[in-house]
């Protein structure tokens, strides 16, 4: 049997722990007779499974023959790409021809006799959505790792128009919290404020432990130790499982930890660290060595006022780096990130 774990990002791994509640929340909302939301944003730290969750939801919805699912690349002209992908669908292409819709001005099909060509890309998509609606179908658009760009801003503004026209169009996006936050705060896209964000929390510990126990046939104590080492972080779940599978007959769990740390650093942690401010790093450095994780203690050691510390604490929480669930305390949210931080601070001295 091949290794059931993967180190690749985005692709749904063989060993996948689904986020049942959050997945059902989005699917149920989209497929309801009267949908409560037609836009959802999935956000979380790098390696938290945003892309996999989006892909899983798209796959479930695609099983319904009444749905059309299209994935768009946010770095390209989104309206042009959407029109091209809809036009390429055989069942819709035939309807466009029968309706004598001429989209040749945009390189879609050929000119149609006695039909005026549609010369605005937004109008092209409106005509297409009208035919999708008449066909009794719904359109789900997915976009991965969205950032604020002119293409995304134009698309989002048009999407708002399509919603006002009551077209059966839905949007599922993923992105880092700071990127989605910047997009939502654009003055021209205020409607996105109301779009719910699904923040990916750690995986269920019971599910992680059961997965390790069932795959490796190990005792509960070892499975529990592996689970604690991941802190429910999806990428760590995959990395530790991958390494344990490759070395289970020759090396102990403790012996693979250096390699585990190396994978986490090279694939994720170095990138996260590079995006932090100097004050962010100072706070994490203090948190990595202190035995007292009370906010008051850390703040006093850093000589920071309460208002200033709160700003950085909230920012680090949004980035998925720290956990503030316990009142008055902060802790590292990512597995063995404290060890990584200690090394980085020594290197930067």
Which keywords apply here?
single chain, 349 residues, alpha/beta, Rossmann fold, Arc Repressor Mutant, subunit A, 3 domains, 5-stranded parallel beta sheet, two-stranded antiparallel ribbon, 7 strands
Task: Describe the 3D structure.
The chain has 349 residues and is of the alpha/beta class. The chain has three domains: 20-199, Rossmann fold, CATH 3.40.50.300; 205-271, no CATH class; 276-347, Orthogonal Bundle (Arc Repressor Mutant, subunit A), CATH 1.10.10.10. It has helices at residues 20-31, 50-62, 78-87, 90-98, 121-134, 150-164, 177-184, 205-216, 220-230, 234-247, 257-274, 278-289, 295-301, 306-318, 337-347; strands spanning 39-43, 67-72, 138-143, 169-175, 197-199, 322-323, 331-332. The strands form two sheets. The protein has a five-stranded parallel β-sheet, sandwiched between helices. Helix 3 runs parallel beside helix 5, helix 8 crosses helix 9 (220-230) and helix 10 (234-247) runs antiparallel to helix 11 (257-274). The chain starts with 19 loop residues before the first helix and ends with a helix.
């Amino acid at each position: 049997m091949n290794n059931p774990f993967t180190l690749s990002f985005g692709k749904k791994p063989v060993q996948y722990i689904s986020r049942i509640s959050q997945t059902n929340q989005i699917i149920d909302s989209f497929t309801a007779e009267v949908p409560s939301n037609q836009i959802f944003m999935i956000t979380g730290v790098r390696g938290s499974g945003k892309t996999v969750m989006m892909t899983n939801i798209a796959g479930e919805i695609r099983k319904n023959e009444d749905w059309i699912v299209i994935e768009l690349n946010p770095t390209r002209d989104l309206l042009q790409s959407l029109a091209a992908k809809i036009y390429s669908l055989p069942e819709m292409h035939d309807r466009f021809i029968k309706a004598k819709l001429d989209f040749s001005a945009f390189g879609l099909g050929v000119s149609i006799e006695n039909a005026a060509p549609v010369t605005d890309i937004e109008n092209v998509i409106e005509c297409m959505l009208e035919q999708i609606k008449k066909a009794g179908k719904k359109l789900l658009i997915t976009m991965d790792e969205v950032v604020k760009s002119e293409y995304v801003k134009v698309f989002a503004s048009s999407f708002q128009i399509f919603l006002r026209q009551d077209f059966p169009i839905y949007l599922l996006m993923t992105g880092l919290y700071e990127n989605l936050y910047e997009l939502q705060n654009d003055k021209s896209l205020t409607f996105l404020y109301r779009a719910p964000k699904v923040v990916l929390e750690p995986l269920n510990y019971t599910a992680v432990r059961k997965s390790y126990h069932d795959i490796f046939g190990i005792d509960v104590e070892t499975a529990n130790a592996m689970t604690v080492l991941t802190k429910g972080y999806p990428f760590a779940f995959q990395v530790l499982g991958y390494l344990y599978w490759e070395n289970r007959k020759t090396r102990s769990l403790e012996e693979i930890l250096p390699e585990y740390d190396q994978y986490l650093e090279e694939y994720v942690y170095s990138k996260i660290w590079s995006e932090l401010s100097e004050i962010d790093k100072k706070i994490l450095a203090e948190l990595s060595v202190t035995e007292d994780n009370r906010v008051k203690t850390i703040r006093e050691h850093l000589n920071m006022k309460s208002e200033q510390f709160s700003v950085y604490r909230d920012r680090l929480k949004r980035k998925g780096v720290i956990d503030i669930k316990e009142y008055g305390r902060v802790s590292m949210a990512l597995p063995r990130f404290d060890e990584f931080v200690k090394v980085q601070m020594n290197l930067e001295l």
